[in-house]
Specification:
293 residues; single chain; alpha/beta; 42% helix; Rossmann fold; two-stranded antiparallel ribbon; Helicase, Ruva Protein, domain 3; seven-stranded mixed beta sheet; 11 helices
């Protein structure tokens, strides 16, 4: 039997994965590139290359796990987010592209707060940010990368998630400015901060897509019976943890815009509350600006 080429392996795997994955060709390429330890683009340049028996066996094992529903990011051990390559494990939620909007809006708020305080001739020191439910550290690392003087607290209830975040933070040389804190929501913070940013658990677990529910950590997914449990607790505690003129930014489920906006207005009645949509036009981030300078 002729040893299959990369092109033949990809064609076979794409057909194999089509029944369970919405992106079978991409999945096949990512898995084979991982096995070969090649950039994905090299597969296309060397599609006539014939991987050896050990490589084919490893690829077959990964594609079988993917066919069963295991996420590609867990199979290859990393995921791209906001231009960063991050280690991920089953202890952490896999970063989603829609969360990049949360980062963009947080960066804009950081610039606004800094400009506002400069205009009022206040010198509060480094901007401080709390990333609540940091998981892999994706949001905290993205913010720290683009705000080179900011101090960021990355908080998570899960020690296993914090271990992954620590690896990613060290990888990008940010251990001096991104401080890991283990605990529940805002309780570990040592002092009020300028910005609170969070992609909290907001799903109704019974409604989560089965493969997500089977593989990703329920602690990072389960928002209670109506998906609002963490928002209630976080918004109730946020005013005491926020400096005057600070901002809270919350990622939400596409169906939660009106409910989270109403909750924010009721909990922080003097705040400016705004709802932002993602590129698909879905409600995605609620921004709560407190008053004061």
């Amino acid at each position: 039997m002729t040893t299959p080429t990369i092109g033949e392996l990809l064609t076979s795997a794409t057909h194999d994965l089509a029944a369970t994955s919405p992106t079978p060709r991409l999945d096949a390429e990512l898995l084979l590139a991982h096995v070969l330890n090649w950039p994905r683009a090299r597969l296309l340049a060397e599609y006539r290359h014939r991987p050896d028996a050990a490589q084919r066996s490893a690829f077959d094992q990964l594609r079988a796990r993917r066919r069963a529903g295991e996420p590609v990011a867990y199979l290859v051990g990393h995921k791209e987010f906001y231009g960063l390559d991050l280690v991920v494990t089953p202890a952490t939620l896999i970063p989603r592209p829609e969360t990049e909007l949360l980062v963009e809006l947080a960066l804009a708020e950081a610039q606004r707060i800094s400009a506002q305080r400069s205009a009022h001739h206040t010198a509060p020191g480094a901007l401080t940010i709390a990333d609540i439910g940091t998981g892999s550290g994706a949001i905290a690392i993205a913010l720290a990368t683009h705000l080179p003087t900011a101090l960021i607290y990355a908080v998570d209830l899960s020690p296993a998630a914090l271990a992954v975040a620590a690896e990613n933070i060290a990888r990008y040389g940010l251990t001096a400015r991104v401080h890991l804190l283990q605990g529940d929501l805002l309780s570990p913070l040592p002092a009020p901060v300028d910005i609170i940013v969070s992609n909290p658990p907001y799903t109704i677990l019974a409604d989560v897509e089965p493969h997500v529910r089977a593989y990703e950590p329920h602690l990072a997914l389960d928002g209670g019976p109506n998906g609002m449990d963490v928002y209630r607790r976080l918004l109730a505690a946020a005013p005491a943890a926020l400096r005057p003129g600070g901002t809270i930014l919350l990622e939400i489920g596409a169906w939660q815009g009106a409910a989270v906006v109403a909750l924010a207005r009721a909990t922080v009645p003097d705040a400016d509350v705004r709802l932002h949509q993602d590129l698909a036009g879905h409600d995605r981030v609620v921004v709560v600006r407190s008053t004061g300078v």
